[in-house]
Amino acid sequence: MNSEIRELQPEEVWNKFTDLNAVPRPSKKEEQVIAFMLDFGKQLDLETFKDEVGNVIIKKPASPGMENRKTVVLQSHLDMVHQKNNDTVFDFSSQGIEMFVEDGWVKAKGTTLGADNGLGVAAIMAILESKTIAHPAIEALFTIDEETGMTGAQGLKEGLLAGDILLNLDTEEDDEIDIGCAGGIDITASRKYEEETTPEDVTAYKIAVKGLQGGHSGMDIHRGFGNANKIMNRLLFDGFENFGLRIAKIDGGGLRNAIPRESEAIVVVDRIHHDAFALEFNQLATSIKKEYKTMEPSLFISAEATDTPDKVMNIGVQEGITKALYAAHNGVYVMSPDMENLVQTSNNIARVKIGEGKIKVLCLTRSSVETSKIDMANSLRATFELCGCEVKYSGEYPGWKPNVNSPILKVLNEKYQELFKEAPEVVACHAGLECGILGQNYPEMDMISFGPTIKGAHSPDERAHIASVEKFWKFLKEILKEIPVKD
């Protein structure tokens, strides 16, 4: 199946991407891909090493005639988001991604594709391997754990790199040049509770919310996609208010940086309310689907009879957490007053796990303004503390402040217009790029970010536009020819 990918243009990039996608590489479990990359660099007889946290650095001397140019750091991250559809049987720890071509796009069979950031990694590999591409001295930086904490970038020590310019190849629209990004912070609310014996004379249901698009919790947060955890809570809240519904367990969402696509809950309702509950549930489900019919045409909501659980939540705790989940903000919090159409601050209620006496809610708050980020985090903390949860902050990372006077921005802007006969969009993004973190130890490094068009990142609908990859590759090669001479 992946053989057809190897025949796409540019072959050197798609071949490296196919090689990379044969290697399991989930965040925080990158041992196999680190070994793969170390072996790749050593086979090319290039200076190759791993730093103390697991980042891989490969250095390549300038091609003939380019020795007087500034050194360039080419940077992408090795890990990928591992998400799959519930009905897809796939073992991310042992299987390579199964790819196919459809209508000008490369996609994966029921899983994330890994184009984020595998296409950036593949492009760097192709440059390192090439004997014909003109380039200055290159330091290839392959970071780990970008998707779940950016610990690779945070752990990179000063002094390991000597580059003057950093090209981050991790954005997802081929007509954009990124000069800034949001910072982030993880918010985790948790508590224990006493379970109660399930009342007698009840009907048990398995409630499912699925079929949502999901997507990147930064880049897609403004698009109005449904959040499975919020929709599920809306259904449960209504059932509790009107029919005394009791919750046994909830399992919704997954990674913090993915908008949750699916949620399941096991609940019980007094048998006397069976018919009325079913009618009310179906009416509410129909109303919700109508609300989301434009953005979420495949939304599916169901309630099916299931085995009666032995235990349910303490009723007081249940009331508190359902109200807290209703009150907790999800989506865009503030739009930027300085850059048109840029989300300044947002939150994603990414994971809700309730059962066996434990509650855990995972959120990711992003913002390009530090004070606004903390304001959003404190709002969530207050909401969940009111229902007895302990709230912890972790994984905080800074944003990347835009520099409109960046010298490398001028190079990219002019080269883009020369090649494609139109001006690029110079933007800041609401995703978390590693530039802000890397800039803490390398404050004098001039940084920019760009990449090919990728849609549906962080979801099984992730896809890479084939023509865009060719455009990106052409742009990257031409930029390397135009790197300024050393001061």
Please characterize this protein's 3D structure.
- It is built from twelve helices and 23 strands.
- It has helices spanning 3-6, 11-21, 31-43, 115-129, 151-155, 228-243, 274-291, 315-327, 370-385, 407-420, 435-441, 466-481, and strands at 47-50, 56-60, 72-77, 99-102, 105-108, 138-143, 165-168, 176-181, 183-192, 195-197, 202-210, 246-253, 263-270, 300-305, 311-313, 331-335, 343-355, 358-367, 390-397, 425-429, 446-449, 454-455, 463-465.
- Strands 9, 11, 12, 13, 14, 16, 17, 18 and 19 form a nine-stranded antiparallel sheet that branches. A six-stranded mixed sheet has the order 1-2-6-3-7-21, covered by helices on one side. A four-stranded antiparallel sheet has the order 4-5-23-22.
Quick structural overview:
By secondary structure, the protein is an alpha+beta fold. The chain has helices spanning 3-6, 11-21, 31-43, 115-129, 151-155, 228-243, 274-291, 315-327, 370-385, 407-420, 435-441, 466-481; strands at residues 47-50, 56-60, 72-77, 99-102, 105-108, 138-143, 165-168, 176-181, 183-192, 195-197, 202-210, 246-253, 263-270, 300-305, 311-313, 331-335, 343-355, 358-367, 390-397, 425-429, 446-449, 454-455, 463-465. The relative contact order is 0.18.
